Amino acid sequence: MSHDPEDRPVRLQIEASGEKHVVLPSADDSLSTLSEVLRRAGLPLNTRCGGRGRCHGCVIELISGHLVRISDKQRIGVAPGSEILSLRACEYAMDAASASIRIPLRSSMCHEPQIVSDYQIGISFSHDPLYQEVRLPHVAAAADLAQAVQNLRPGLPIRVAPAVNAALLPPGDVYADLDYRGDHRLVTSVHAAPSPAILGAAVDIGTTTVALMLVDLRHGRVLARASMFNQQMHSGDDVVTRINLCMTDPPMLGHLQKAVAVQTVLPLLEQALAESAQAIGDVRCFTFSGNTTMLHLLAGVDPTPMGISPFTPVFLSHRVLDAVSIFGDSSLAPQTPCHLLPGAAAYIGSDLTAGIVATGLLYDPGPSLLVDVGTNGEIILKHGDNLVGCATAAGPAFEGARLSSGMRAVHGAISHVVISADRTAIECDIIGDPPPHPIGICGSGYVDFLATAHHAGILTDTGRFDADAAGDLRNRLIPWDANDTAFCLATGSGKQPITVSQRDIASLLQAKAAIAAGILTLLEPFHLRPQDIRTVYLAGGFGTHMDPAAAIACGLLPGFTPAQVCPVGNTALAGAFLALMDCGLLAETADAAIRTRVVELNLDPNFESCYIDQLCIT
Q1: CA separation for the pair 162, 546 (Å, rounded)
Q2: pLDDT (tens digit, 9 = 90+) per residue, 261-293?
Q3: What is the DSSP string of 118-139?
Q4: In the beta sheet, which residues pair with residue 134?
Q5: Contact at 8 Å (CB) between 217 and 199?
Q6: Helix or strand holding residue 209 (H, E)
Q7: How far apart are the C-alpha atoms of 352 and 581, rounded to whole Å?
Q8: pLDDT in tens, 15-42
Q9: Rounded distance, CA 479 to CA 476, Å?
Q10: Which three-class secondary structure state does DSSP give residue 517?
């Protein structure tokens, strides 16, 4: 395809505000998908499957003009006044002629995510930072440094970095910087005057979102928080997609590392520093929690061994890297230590081991559960001295992927739903203040819908719509996608229906059954029932905003009561903060990782039958 410079530009319209953007064709656009063209224009889409045409995250509406289908080079067009076409932007390219398209808000990435950076810490902790500065009396020679520090910080052996050993010590009292390295402390630098500030950053690297806290290590204060989408999302929505990208295209490893480190963590750090009026030169240390794949990608370590059986990580234990190996050339001191927290297995990462410590589950006699509901639902059972964990492939349904009106928890998403028992009214809570027009439904809204629609009789036990029982809401049931039926929950901007289709229900039931069956499979060997569990610690953003009663009613948390459920927020970030502030708790996190016995659900003979049983709404 060639481009005539005189061609009219493609016009993009974002339907929420009616803003109009003009993209002028470039020489590269004939080789690029429309989703890539839009990304370069600053209008990124939800390319959740990595642009492989397997989801509906990048759907755009062709209003007029033509696009070219990449698979067969066929021109697809809409004449003025004709019906608008909905197309996946990853499957089409710009045509030589002009076109006008609209980006539905659900497809746009130009939203602030609703990220949980709040948490509950269930334990006490000391002020013994991972990185700290100590004042030493006059030390005559570098050879005496280790002993001088040991006198002040007894316990762990003291080692001195080679560059410090070779340096000429300043006269008089000196100040030494110490970094915890697991089995020893390392003297990383020595200077004549105290530092103006000693800062650390605790970071939770999530598959979807990243949260950062800037901490004053000297006084133990949280100075600022920042969060944003993980920029790896442009290359794929889940860990499996990103692993496969590294497997099939090795240079993608460097691309994904840059996306999370340089394009996500560094901007968050800069934002936190600006808000707290601090200098980047005073940042001395990082702690990172996250699932095992995310930490491999952050470290620039090939994750492909986790993509094939027996799913073996390159590393799981506490690892210390310097800033230059993660961030490359940046304003950070090149040797700034970056601590990657230890995980238990390929799919039980340091986000879970951090949560085991932060919630107090590690010290809880139990029986208690830690449940993090997401694309991979991770579950930890603590019973006496036993720590047992599993990961269950719930899929991306609770993040809205591949659902008719699904979206993440951003401005405009329906987050909670109540259908009256007499089937005469529907109430929807919408994220935003003041509430905007709804543009889709996020995970907590879907959980509510399953529970409240079943309670009202609109959904049967098997998840089928019952038109006869819908009462005054019968007219909400509408034809959908030729052979499907959908329930119109609300009318969004542009009078577009916000729907839950019969196919959506099937996907949601599969996701909730995977979580429920994982929980019950962990309990079964110990002859435990849900009513025997003291506390269900519900972790993560989804768990924080989900109504426990609705989760129980739809069978996501089967057989529990609301009194047993304790939402605890972002325990991965809490664990990273605790490790930063109390190096002894980093050792406890490592102990939790070693002690956790991982159950492979695909090898458990009871899991499949339990999963099938949980496909009903109970």
Answers
A1: 51
A2: 999 999 999 999 999 999 999 999 999 999 999
A3: -B---S----B-SEEEEEE---
A4: 176
A5: yes
A6: strand 209-216
A7: 19
A8: 434 556 656 555 555 567 877 777 766 6
A9: 10
A10: helix
> What CA–CA distance (Å, rounded) separates 48 from 57?
6
- Bridge partners for 86 per DSSP: 61
Angstrom distances, CA of residue 197 to CA of 193, 219, 279, 594? 12, 10, 9, 35
432: left (phi over 0), alpha (psi -120 to 50) or beta: left
Q: Report pLDDT digits (tens) over 516-545.
A: 999 999 999 999 999 999 999 999 877 778
CATH topology (fold) of 199-340: Nucleotidyltransferase; domain 5 (3.30.420)
Tell me 168's DSSP state.
P
Cis link prior to 367 (omega < 30° from 0)?
yes
Residue 560: strand, helix, or coil: coil
Collapsing DSSP to helix, strand or coil, 84 comes out as coil
> Minimal CA–CA distance to 272: which of 259, 258, 286?
286
- Side-chain-side CA neighbours of residue 197 (13 Å): 17
Measured between alpha carbons, how far is 169 from 161 in angstroms, rounded to an integer? 14
How many angstroms separate the first and last alpha carbons of the chain? 55
Q: How far apart are CA 89 and CA 57, in angstroms?
A: 9
- Distance in angstroms (rounded) separating the CA atoms of residues 358 and 533: 19
Is the N-terminal amide bond of 434 cis, ω within 30° of 0?
yes
Task: List every span in the chain annotated with CATH 3.30.420.480.
Answer: 199-340
For residue 340, what are its two tokens? 């990657």
User: Length of the chain, please?
Assistant: 618
What does the pLDDT look like over 573-584, one tens digit per residue? 999 999 999 988
DSSP 238: S
Note every long-range contact of 212-216, with CB atoms under 8 Å and residues 24 or more positions apart, other chains counting. 212/265, 212/268, 212/269, 212/272, 213/117, 213/272, 213/573, 213/576, 213/577, 214/269, 214/272, 214/273, 214/276, 214/278, 214/283, 215/577, 215/580, 215/581
CATH code 3.10.20.30 region(s) in the chain: 10-107
Longest dimension (CA), the chain: 90
What pLDDT does residue 422 have? Answer: 87
Note the pTM of the prediction, 2 decimals.
Answer: 0.81
Cβ proximity of 210 and 264 under 8 Å: yes
Tokens standing for 35? Answer: 């989703």
- Average pLDDT score over residue span 364-379: 87
Superfamily classification of domain 10-107: Beta-grasp domain (3.10.20.30)
Q: Please tell me whether the peptide bond between 310 and the residue prior to it is cis, using omega within 30 degrees of 0.
A: yes
Helices of type H across 524-570? 540-545, 548-553
What is the rounded CA–CA span in Å between residue 144 and residue 241?
Answer: 52
With cut-offs at 50, 70 and 90, classify the pLDDT of residue 471: confident
Give domain 363-395+510-613's CATH architecture.
2-Layer Sandwich (3.30)
Q: What is the DSSP letter of 108?
A: B
